[in-house]
Design a protein that fits this description.
Shape: elongated
Helix content: 10-25%
Number of domains: 2
Largest sheet: 8 strands, antiparallel, barrel
Number of helices: 1
Strand content: 35-45%
Strand order of the largest sheet: 1-2-3-4-5-8-9-10
Number of strands: 10
Order of helices and strands: HEEEEEEEEEE
Distance between the termini: 88 Å
Length: 142
């Protein structure tokens, strides 16, 4: 005949099972959070924006092309101040160079005047706002 576990043994087994259930649940919640936390790409922000000093920024489905030379990814968000573009790396204005990407600085939001169909994108470099205006689409005459 099998011996019945002692009360101490039962309590220890319940504790081990409880810890296992909690650990498994935690892992599943973290995995679900990471899976559902995909970047938001809003096609309504797509377009070509230009500034006389800095050059151009082309937004296309989560890819930002700076002066037809460098591409970085971005997400579209909204906060209390309105819609914005959050690039993967910091984008800034540099004298005599136009736009520069810096992976060592904290990323700044580029503000949109509205969504959908933003007409302006604003990059703040210190106290100076650089306003990029949407250029007419090449396909708009079709």
């Amino acid at each position: 005949m099998k011996e019945r576990p002692t009360r101490k043994g039962e309590a220890k087994m319940r504790r081990v099972i409880s810890i296992g259930v909690v650990a498994t649940g935690t892992v599943l919640l973290v995995a679900l959070f990471l899976y559902l936390r995909k970047p938001v790409v809003d096609a309504s922000a797509n377009g070509l924006f230009a500034n006389d000093f800095c050059g151009t920024i082309k937004l296309a489905d989560g890819e930002m092309l700076l002066n037809d030379r460098q591409t970085i990814s971005y997400i579209v968000g909204r906060d209390a101040e309105g819609p914005y573009i959050l690039p993967r790396f910091d984008v800034g204005a540099v004298s005599d160079q136009g736009l520069d990407v810096d992976g060592t600085r904290s990323v700044r939001k580029l503000r949109l005047d509205r969504l959908p169909s933003a007409t302006k994108l604003t990059l703040h470099e210190g106290l100076t706002p650089y306003v990029f205006k949407r250029l007419a689409s090449v396909n708009s005459h079709e």
